[in-house]
Every structure is written in structure tokens, then in C-alpha cells.
Amino acid sequence: MYSFIATWPFALQAAQAAGTVLAAGGRALDAVIAGIHPVESDPAVESVGKGGFLNENGELALDAAVMDGDTLKTGAVCAVRGFEHPVDIARAVMEHTRHNILVGAGAEEFARRMGIPEAGMEALITPAAREAWQQVKTRGHDTIGAIALDENGSLAVATSTSGANGRISGRVGDSPIIGSGFYAETGVGAAAATGLGEDIMRTCCSFRCVDLMRAGLSAQAAAETVVRTAHEAIVRHGGRPDCIALVCMDAAGNTGAAANHKGFAFARAAQGLAPQVIEVTPVLDKDGENTFFDGVAGYER
Ligand code: ASP
């Protein structure tokens, strides 16, 4: 039985594309990449790929990652400019280097060497993104995190994001960081996160979620436990958690999703199930507001 889950309603097109790959007997790894491609190309998705949020310098610098649960191999890129499909560069890092993460100009140079098509940064910046950047108060950040299980029982995960609007140039979120924004281990489970990367990184959400499934929790219980305990840990240590949300899948394709805020939803596809968007009831009663910017100009504090 194949199974697919990805963060946010904009991932419905990902569920359709990935579902087609999986229904044809394709690999989980190919399915997560195929799922992310249309979202990266969609200029209406304001936080991923083309049309994504700009950093404080007005640049579109993208993060992406992939992990093959069969091998635990991973590839990620941070702050790459001029490429519509950073997830393809992440895959090339995984498959053609001995490294896990390449950043900035080095990642761009590597992508050119790999023959990955380069669009040029300006071609990927939409008028809406430029406008959001000019309105420094626009607060937005979302990631596509996609997980697939194929007919062979292999799990894979991939992520892609622009990160938040107006971030400091060079800022890296959780999405390309193994164990924080994503994790997959075939035979155990996989997880992907979305929300404020700074909070997700300091609570290592995705690896913890997979480890809880390893310990016997259901996918749903693991997702809820991670979101709740991450939120509570930040509060206990004097912080104010921003948005934290997770999707996950166990080795059998059962899915879980949890958020500490209202408004989170995910897209799902599986054998015998038409691609659909499902809303998530929050496990905590945090309002939907981002707390990260409160009382500060930009991201400095
Ligand atoms: N986690 C992403 C980041 O911090 C953004 C998001 O998923 O909302 O870059």
C-alpha cells in the first residue's frame, strides 16, 4: 500500500503528482521530489520556490532537503539563489557527493556543475513577493514537507521553503536541517515540520517524532507528543513559542499531524483515497499569531 502526506493545502498538487508516481509503482524518493516540483513552480505559493518570500536584502534564497529512508542518506541546500527547484540540488548533493549540506554560492556552483537548470533570481521573484518584502510587517513562512511510502515499504521525505519574509540574509531555518525539519528511516517512520524554524530546530522535532514511533507510539500520538512537548519546553525555559506543526508517517503508511496553532492543514493521498486536504485540530490553544516578531524590527533581537 502506498501513502503520501505533505504540509499545507497548497500541497494538494503535490499529493496529486506524488500519488501518480506511487500508484504506478514508483519509488518513494521519486514521489516526494515529483510532489514538491509543482509547488516550487507555483508563483502563487508565497513561501516555496518561485514567488517565495525574500530576505532582508530583497533576495530569494531557498532551502531544501531530501532523505532516503532506505539508506539514511540525506542531501540539503541552504540559501540558494536563482534555481526554481532547490530540491533537485538537494537530491544531487545526496546522490553525487559525500556531503549532507551545501550552502549559498557553493551550492549554486555545484548545481551548475550538475547541469541543473538555472532560472536566475529575478525570474523567480514575483511582484507579490517584492510587495510583501516592502511591507516589512508582512509575517509569513511555510514549508512544503512531503513524506512518501512506496509499495516496497521504502520511506522518503523532502522539504522546500523560502523561509520567512525579511529574514536576515544567510539565515537558515529547520527545513534543510536533518532531524529538525525532516527525518526518514525505512521500517520505522518519517516526519517533516513546518512553522518557525528557530523553535523547531531547538526542539529537534522530526527526529524526536520518528524516535517516538520507534518506541511504539502511533503516528498521531507521536506528532501530538512532539508538538506539545516542544511548545512546553520553550515555555518552561522562558520563551514564547511561535507556530510549530508536524506531519508524520509510520512504516505501514499510517499518518499523523499536529500543530500548536489553529489553521494547520495537510494534503494526503493513498491507495484508494483521492488526494484531499485535511484540517488539523490544534493540540494547544495558541492563537495563530507569529510571536517571533513581537516588539522587534525585522528579526534582530
Ligand atoms: N520552517 C520554515 C522556516 O523556518 C518556515 C515554515 O515552515 O513556516 O524556514
Concise structural overview:
The chain is an alpha+beta fold. The chain has helices spanning 12-23, 28-41, 86-96, 104-113, 121-124, 127-134, 197-202, 205-214, 219-236, and strands at residues 3-7, 62-68, 73-80, 101-103, 144-149, 155-161, 182-185, 189-195, 244-250, 255-259, 265-270, 273-279. The protein has an eight-stranded mixed β-sheet.
Give an overview in words.
This protein is of the alpha+beta class and 301 residues long. It has one domain: Glutamine Phosphoribosylpyrophosphate, subunit 1, domain 1 (4-Layer Sandwich), CATH 3.60.20.30. It is built from 9 helices and 12 strands. The chain has helices at 12-23, 28-41, 86-96, 104-113, 121-124, 127-134, 197-202, 205-214, 219-236; strands at residues 3-7, 62-68, 73-80, 101-103, 144-149, 155-161, 182-185, 189-195, 244-250, 255-259, 265-270, 273-279. The strands form 2 sheets. The chain has an 8-stranded mixed sheet. It has a 4-stranded antiparallel sheet with strand order 7-8-9-10. It is globular, with a radius of gyration of 17 Å. The structure holds aspartic acid. Residues 141-143, 161, 163-164, 173-175, 194-197, 200 line the site of aspartic acid.
